What we know:
The complex is a heterodimer. Helices cover 0% and strands 56% of the residues of chain A. Chain A is mainly beta. In chain A, strands 2, 4, 5, 6, 9, 10 and 11 form a 7-stranded mixed sheet that branches. In chain A, strands 1-3-8-7 form a 4-stranded antiparallel sheet, with no helix packed on it.
Amino acid sequence: DTEVTQTPKHLVMGMTNKKSLKCEQHMGHRAMYWYKQKAKKPPELMFVYSYEKLSINESVPSRFSPECPNSSLLNLHLHALQPEDSALYLCASSRLPGLTSYEQYFGPGTRLTVT
Amino acid sequence: AQSVTQLGSHVSVSEGALVLLRCNYSSSVPPYLFWYVQYPNQGLQLLLKYTSAATLVKGINGFEAEFKKSETSFHLTKPSAHMSDAAEYFCAVSDQGAQKLVFGQGTRLTINP
């Protein structure tokens, strides 16, 4: 099974709302990622978790708060977002790189609209 | 620093024609290279990867890519295009041991009937 699942598929939220995006994988991967993708652009890395610990934060605003409760789950908590945060949010997972690098498996994404 | 350049933001071919999507990379160390495809309103799906085992890499859906170190290229090809190949294609590079993928800007492939 090479599936990464994400919920919800679509989300509309106001600028004062608090919401969460969820991601799950059962491939035994110990690296998990959040990306943001704007229309007609490549994905932009936001966060990386390795062994459930935050290893990379690409200077993402604090209104985005990631969480990795266990090795299979990854959350992205959203608070006080701006309209320009509207985008497709992609989750991915991979084996932890060491002497080699491994492909990342992507979920279908959550289409977020901030009103 | 690593970088990826995809030549041509939009490629259009006729059904049954050869598909050629170009990717050039820049990396200070032997790279790991990937091609991903993204269909509308979906996530990215891995087509194929180069990890130094063989220079000609075969992937899913009839795609293949050839790693050419002298040209720093990793172009994606398919002998005969199908309508279902219409999508956005991303080339990406990663250094050994790195967790970051550096993506190209993407190439939108259109198939004409």
